[in-house]
Each structure stands twice: as C-alpha cells, then as structure tokens.
C-alpha cells in the first residue's frame, strides 16, 4: 500500500474516533498532507543534507557525477528554475539552488542596492531560504493538485487503467525541494554571531552553509580588490560555530563549504600568536612581507618586531594598520587554507579565482589532495569573468605554444565581434561548453554554480521587452516575445493564476465548503483561453 493510501486509511480510522469531525473527508486530508510533505525547515534541511552526502559519495566514485546550481534571488525564480529542470530533464537529481550573498545585497536589502560587503541585514539571508522553500513546496502542491484532479476525472469516467497510472505518478512523485548552498558571507560578526545566524539559516531549511575566510567587517566581493583574510584560528572557530549549529538542531549530515579568498587577498588584519614553531599561527605569519631588523634604529615609533625563522623582522604595515602578504604567496596560502579547513571540520572547499582556468584550479587541488585525497570543490562559474575573452585567450596561448599560426588574431582584442565565426572562437566555445565536465574530471570540482545569473537574465529580458513595447512594436513586443513563446514552449507560468495558487485555493474551498464553495476557476476565468 502506498503512503498516500496508508494516510487515507489512517485518517479514516481517526475520523471514526472523532464523531464531530464527520464533515472531514479522509482522502482530502491525505491529499493535503501529501501536498505538504515537509512540516518544517528542519525537515527540509535533514532531507536535503542526505541528498548532498549521497551526491558527494557518488562524485568520489565517479567525477562525471558532478552537481550544479544557479543563484536565485527570489522564491519565484527558484521555483521556475526547478519546474524547468523537471520539464526538460525529467528529474531534479544533482541540481541544487544557490543562495548568493551578492544578490541579497544587490536586490533584497531594505537599504536598497548594496555592494557585496556584508552591509545588508543578516536576517534577509534566512528569510530568502524560507521564501525559496515556500515556493518550491507550493510547486509540489500545485502539481500534485493537478494529479489529484486527473485522478478524480479518471475515476468518474470509470477508466481504472488511467486511474492506476495517475496513482503511480502520485506515489512516485519527486519533490521540487532540493539542497540550497547558502552563503553566510564571512559570518556577519564574531563566532557567536555566526552561530546564531547559522541556526536561523538551518531552521529555514539550509543543509549547506558556505563561509569565507575574509574579515567580517571588511568583507569584499571575491572579485573585487582590497580583500583582507583572517588567521586560521579565527576561521576555524567559525567553522566550529556552524557545525555546532547543525548538531544542536539535529542536522548531523549538514555540509560546510570553506571558502578561501587568499588567492586574491594580499592583506591580513592581525598577526596571530604562535605558541610553538611550525604551528598554524607561525605558518600564517611566514607569508607576511617583512623587512629585517638589525637594531632598534630600524624600528619607527609604534613598529612591531617579530621573530620568524630565527630572524628579527618587522612586518610591512599599511597606514590603515593592515599587514601585507608576500607577493606571489597566494596559491601557497590557498593550499594551506584548504588543507587546514578540511582537517578541522569543513566538508567542501571553495577557491575563489580570478579566471576560469582548469589548469590553475587543478594545480592547487592536486597539492591539497596530497594531504586530503578526497578533497573536492564548489566552484563559482562567475559572471564576473569575461568567459568569451578568457577562453579565446586560452586557445590563443595554447595554439601559440603548439606552434600554430595565430597571426590572424589580436590577443588583446579577441572579444571583437569580427572573431565570432572564427575557428579560434568556435574552439573556445567548445571548451566553455565542456568546462564543467572537464573541471569535474580534472580539477576536483564536485559542484558548479553560477552565483548571480538570474540577476542578469532579469535585466536582459526586461531590456528586450521595454525596447519593443515602448517602441514601434507596442503590445506585439509582449505577445510575440513573451506570451506566444510561453505557450509554444510549454511554460506552466502562462497560466499565472494557477501558478499563483488559484486552483489550489479552489480545491481547498471545495474541501472546506462543499458545493457552496465560491470558486475562481469557472467558465469566466480568462485562464481557460490557454487550454
């Protein structure tokens, strides 16, 4: 017996014991229960954490089993993404959502658009997680509602074969609820602040929290200059805080992504205290840019002197009090950051790079795997990269090394439209197309995400509509460019009343009020024009 049929029977037995509940239909109650599978955000977090853990194991066995996500800044965007995935690909396997701190800052702050510097309200992060899952659960309720209606119609027509087929669809229904990798920035304060926010995020449904090793109150977007990192001890305290939050709330399989910005960060806010030679603090300070101290005359008022490798030196300090790292030390710091994070509680890594170059990423991952063989990455396929230019230059450089004639191309001008149909451009596009599979296989990338794609798609689609609607096309701009395409391409959203819950509400009214229910889906509903 399916869980749906079991629920009907359980409700039937319950109603026998509650004589005053005789207006309640046990099948309707079972339907509403099926349409609301997850009773809380913690139910979602536990369920999706299990998905991620299984996916991580499958990737370890076969790197072709990588996972993907797109960043979504609104619940509706996340819902439409998952509806599209199920429509085009049949299931949601290995497809997640990404919650981008950048997009929360740019689109969800009460202060208005902000840069990605942790200035937005921290409460907006768990609020968006809850919103995304509200919309995904509504997608489940809507689709199951359609199946229940079809089941009723088949039963009314006496078509038992069709009814049994629909029942199987109900019994084997795959939810739209998938893991969210949620960005907690640098933790929004000290480790206690990180713990408190992590709890709210997990309670909202987050099974995976990504945290970065920048200074919280000086946090910058990973693709901006001026990034400042913290010593390992400070970062590990925040990883511990997130783990305690997961354990406290009963999400034992919760996933922590440790992000390092060290590749592009040349500064640190403070110098950690070393307790013995070779400890984490001494390894961190060994990367500092220093000048020798031969005597007190080499020290200015307020200067700090340190003993590193048996020598007395002073670290180079900027007027703002920040300390500089040695030039060219970024990759070494990344490797140490990653190994240390994995050895102290993190599950996955995120290395923020300045370009999408598989060789560069693989070089660091291979070094990390010497210490942690199953190390794997979440990687930002960032819109901050000029993918076209970067890959055309990579092909140009590869061809040059191979001795191929590249005299027809200007390396610095490869973005030009004049090259769009060239052999080089076609090869670059082929490499972009296979980048995720290649990087998963060669550079240890378990999860590929694009942080803020729907920010750009919203801008592009709005620009296209506004250009035509306010120009010569008028209403045809919407009809031809939007509505007709929705109909032809089978977007459920063309019936926007249904998507917003109108039919769900009608079902409930009928459950609650019977024949006297005033429903919105009658003959005069204009949505009927869409079949």
UniProtKB/TrEMBL annotation:
> Which superkingdom?
Bacteria
Q: Record keywords: Transport included?
A: no
Which GO MF terms does the UniProt record name?
A: isocitrate lyase activity; metal ion binding
Quote the record's cofactor note.
Can also use Mn(2+) ion.
Cofactor requirements of the protein: Mg(2+)
Q: Name one Pfam family in it.
A: ICL
Cross-referenced InterPro entries: ICL/PEPM, Isocitrate_lyase, Pyrv/PenolPyrv_kinase-like_dom, Pyrv_kinase-like_dom_sf
Keyword Transmembrane listed? The answer is: no
What this protein catalyses is: D-threo-isocitrate = glyoxylate + succinate
- Quote the record's binding site residues for Mg(2+): 183
User: Any idea which residues are catalytic in this one?
Assistant: 221 (proton acceptor)
Q: Which GO terms describe its biological process?
A: carboxylic acid metabolic process
Record keywords, A-Z: Lyase, Magnesium, Metal-binding
Q: What is this protein called?
A: Isocitrate lyase
